[in-house]
Amino acid sequence: MERLFLTGKWIDLSILLSFLCPITIIDIKERTVPDELTFMGLIIFFTKAVFHNTVPVLILPVRSMVGFMFVFMLFLLKKGGIGLGDAKLCALLSLVLGFDGFMIVLFTASCTGIAYMLLMLGLKRKPLNRSIPFAPFLSIGGITAYIMQDTFRNLLDRIPFW
Predict the structure, then answer these.
(1) Which string of b and e fits 104-135 if b means at least 16 CB within 10 Å?
(2) What domain range includes position 63?
């Protein structure tokens, strides 16, 4: 984590946070993820990747589509369970973090979402039939993945079959 701030990646993290924070607040208050924020984030990070030549240009749309399609399939299968705004947010996160980072996002978002739901059920504050906004959990997953991605990669490299 110390290397994050020494390498200048904190600028990218700051840009990512400038999208994730308002998306989280808006999703909690209004139960919607604004397209303007996700599309602007996609444009900024796509342009940054093209000019810095960090990833081949043809891979970038594939990265975004992986994140989008994963959640879009859930949207189609479980109508009303997850929204298209979440799918667009996943497109942004998978563009920024790549496939392995996006898997960290999904794992972290699922775990924190389940923990939140169990806590609310335990406190008898949230009925089972009421929806919860998922963008805050995706945002937590995105921040976690961005900061810890190298650590997770090193751990996976130690697994013999991975």
Answers:
(1) bbbebbeebbeeeeeeeeeeeebeeeeeebbb
(2) 2-157
Asked whether the beta carbons of 20 and 142 are under 8 A apart, the reply is yes
Please tell me what DSSP assigns to residue 132: -
The answer as to whether 162 is a domain residue is: no
Assigned token pair, 1? 């984590």
Q: Summarize pLDDT for 83-101 with one digit per residue, the tens.
A: 899 999 999 999 999 998 9
Domain count, the chain: 1
Give 1-17 pLDDT, tens digit per residue.
555 555 568 888 999 99
Please give the model's pTM, rounded to 2 decimal places: 0.88
Assess if residue 26 is contained within a domain.
yes
The per-residue DSSP string of 58-96 comes to: THHHHHHHHHHHHHHHHHHHSTTTS-HHHHHHHHHHHHH
Q: Residue written as tokens 């879009």?
A: 72
